[in-house]
Amino acid sequence: MASYVRIGIGHILLGIDHLLFVLGLIYIARTPGMLLKTITAFTIAHSLTLAAVTFGWIGVPETFVSAMIALSIVYIGVEIINLRAGRSTFTLRHPWAVSFFFGLLHGFGFANALISRGLPVSAVPWALVAFNLGVEIGQIAFVLIVLALGWALRSMRVSLSNQGPAFAAYTIGSLGAFWFFQRIEVLLIL
Q1: Is the pLDDT of residue 160 over 70?
Q2: Which residues contact 27 (CB under 8 A, 6 or more apart)?
Q3: Which of 92, 116, 141, 169 is least surrounded by CB atoms within 10 angstroms?
Q4: Whole-angstrom distance, CA of residue 149 vs CA of residue 85
Q5: Are 105 and 72 a contacting pair, CB within 8 Å?
Q6: Can you give the pTM of this predicted structure?
Q7: Taking Cα atoms as reference points, which of 175, 18, 26, 28 lies closest to residue 89?
Q8: Is residue 65 within 8 Å of residue 15, measured between CB atoms?
């Protein structure tokens, strides 16, 4: 079990696409309560599809999932721009609902990573639980690090440029778009 926990932690902490998506969720969930609700919805959703794929109940081609995960990152980048512009969108009013929907998609990606590592036939449920626990540990660690950095900057009264959040949003969205076109190209070639 310990090895699958480590694999889960490594997958989330090395998965820059998942981290950028979570970073975007942190930004659009503007209160601690909404952040907790949003991250919890994301966790529940990706746990559902992770389990469903691991047990062979459903499946989606990995290349399609990868492209759609990239598109979810573009979507979050656009929503950060909407927030900065003072627009009210469904996502900004209910980030937990959107994070649940995209969490289902990200769960397919987590499942593909787990399955590609191989699963012990006699202990699939335990490997699944351990991997998912590792993913959650990594995700919580990332959220806490981002929150701690934000707190530290505010405590030190570091004044970031007014353009800082816009730069972050465009960076998130641009990387998501790059990955989407890169991954969709693989789909078109197939």
Answers
A1: no
A2: 80, 83, 165, 168, 169
A3: 116
A4: 24
A5: yes
A6: 0.88
A7: 28
A8: no
Q: What are phi and psi of 58, to 5 degrees?
A: -140, 165
Both tokens of residue 146? 């981002």
Residue 144: both structure tokens together: 């806490």
> Cα–Cα distance between 187 and 21 in angstroms, integer?
22
28 close to 76: Cβ distance less than 8 angstroms: yes
Distance CA 38, CA 63 (A): 26
Q: Which helix (H) or strand (E) holds 14?
A: helix 2-14
Q: From CA 158, how far away is CA 152, in angstroms rounded? A: 9
Q: Which residues contact 93 (CB under 8 A, 6 or more apart)?
A: none
Neighbours of 36 (CB within 10 A): 13
Widest Cα–Cα separation across the chain: 55
Output the DSSP codes for 79-96.
HHHHHHTT---HHHH-HH
Closest listed residue to residue 75, CA positions, set 170, 173, 175, 182: 173
Q: String of b and e for 52-61 (b: at least 16 CB within 10 Å)? A: bbbeeeeeee
Structure confidence by residue, pLDDT tens digits, 83-133:
989 999 999 999 999 999 999 999 998 888 888 888 887 888 898 999 999
